[in-house]
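step: validate -> pass
step: tokenize input -> pass
step: predict -> running
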Amino acid sequence: MAGGRDELRLLGMFASPFALRVKLALSFKGLSYEYVEEDLGNKSELLLASNPVHKKVPVLIHNGKPICESQVVVQYIDEAFPGAGDRLLPADPYERAVARFWAAYIDDQLLASWLKASMGKTDEEKAEALQDTFSKVAILEAAFKECSKGKPFFGGDTVGYLDVALGTLVPWVHVGEALYGMRLFDASRSPLLDAWVERFAALDAAKAVLPDTGRLVEYVKTKHAERAAATSANS
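step: predict -> pass
step: emit ->
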């Protein structure tokens, strides 16, 4: 556990998938930390000073030193606390590079396309983005088969870096189903990832930090209403 000279503080926001990624890493590593919930409409001086470039969460502050960007933070946690919990990044340099490649794919391709599908301005734009999202899911399904080698997780028998990277989307799979009747991963289109979602969510370390689906659904509804009101006011 973190303690003594290792003081950890996480600046986050409950609905941020990127902040959740860091929470997952800390949970799987079994590390204690102080959590600070940020109001992104009124960012704290600590957040602005800790992440002056992007001014975003998450920020992990370790012994007074800030680390920013969720993938960077997760890698830092694994390297700074090698004896805590399960090792997340593979020991083999090639496998480590592969894990980093697919983690970047999750953020830059899959997540970006999925966000476009939910936030598109027209039904046509949303439908096009959704089809693009499903094509990216198919690619990730094949990557899971290759990386897991028939075992339960991307990391093999235990959770690894890619499981944490993708685990940040687990609650949003359920939100998408609740709001739109559509799962990002499903048994017909991506059976391996669909089974992985339930397997990952059942882990104690994941259950300890995964946000409540109902709360996320209400958050999304509120944001949609605010966006619609703003659009109406500007038209």
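step: describe -> The chain has a mean pLDDT of 94.
step: cleanup -> pass
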